[in-house]
What we know:
Number of domains: 2
Number of strands: 11
Distance between the termini: 6 Å
CATH topology of the largest domain: Rossmann fold
CATH class of the largest domain: Alpha Beta
Helix content: 25-40%
Strand order of the largest sheet: 1-9-6-7-8-10-11
Shape: globular
Oligomer: single chain
Number of helices: 15
Largest sheet: 7 strands, mixed
Amino acid sequence: MSKQAGCNIWLKLEGMQPTQSFKIRGVGNMCVSALVEHNAQRIVAVGDTNAALAVAYSARQLGVPATIFVPGSGTQVSVIRPKLELEGADVVEEGRTIREAYKAACDFVQGTEGAILIDTADEEAAIVGNATILNEIALQLKNQEPAVIITPVGSGGLLAGIITGLHQNHWYQVPIIAVETHNTNSFQQALLADSERDDRVEEATHSVSGKTRVVTTQAATSQGISATPPPSLLPPLEEEPENGDGELNQGPPGSRASNRSNSEGPSQLHSRVRVSSIDGRSAEPTIATCLSTGSICPKALELSRVHPVVPISVSDAMAAEACRRFLDEHQMLIEVGSAAALSIIGKGLIHQIVPDLDHNSHIVVIVTGGANINFDRIDSYRQRFPYPAPIIAKSGQEVFMRMLDSTQPASSSGVVSTGNPIGATPGQSRQSVTSAVSTPL
């Protein structure tokens, strides 16, 4: 990867965690908090997801029983469900959708003394836990500032943790490329809604043009990011598939490590979804299920207003190709949503987004991992998608990069812009470093 990109690529391999994903950081911290601060006698979670697996593992390590509510008969069984049972969790099938399973979990918590429901979208404990990833990166890079960090983004809890960790290490201007797939671009749409509110306030108080929508103007211009509103904040194409049938695809909306009232049933769920992004799409689900979400962490949006964040979405085909390539080149299985971030490197897009990289630049890719993957799914991607996949990276409605011949180098003229490319130029050259823990590949 480093040879292809012409700079140092560092992979933060969260798939090496005990539960095969980064979720153990935030969820594990929440489970400790539930035990220490709330004297939890039983920990409850919803869905056969990476977060639920982290709950089951953490509960076993803490010596507390865990109950995981999942949709029942007629639903596709996740690869993760047997792993929940292996961790000793009680897996309870209730309802046909995640909302119905969530309602059953709320009722269970309400009627069970000492039961605590772990929900992870925007809990402070989860963000603090996720921030530890940056403390490790700083140690592994010997405190030398990276040129850019690339990460997948789902509900935004990881993104909030990354920005928090960057600020803890005084890396206030390290840009983040937040990668989604075209069918899971909830974060981009949340930024759009947030920026439109800003524009209305701006128009009411000032007649000032050029206000940036992704980051503050000060943070943007210091990194060379255009202060002009990028095309990434436009709404999705009408023909884009929806993430499922309108139900939440990765656990319940909202987040709190506390007892839930049974009055907070399905009719009340929407009041806790701060930013919804699944309205108005078609019914075909994405394969990047770990990025599907019904809400965006408010803290992620808040921090994205003061830190340079560039939202990018890629096609399912590009993410699937990156997933296959990672297996071929590194003999590691990761979920396709995690691989979406790797596609920015693998397809040579990094130089279109951050133009001034050189052989001294350090790029950190958060490889979030994920346990919901097996060889059968890899084979299904091989049959479903072209290989190599055409490059179609976009933000909302605008396709701003496309390369028909994916074998061309990133600097070739095969990139056609139909919108304004988003560029982030790190302000200084970095020295090459070595690390015993993470070595540029």
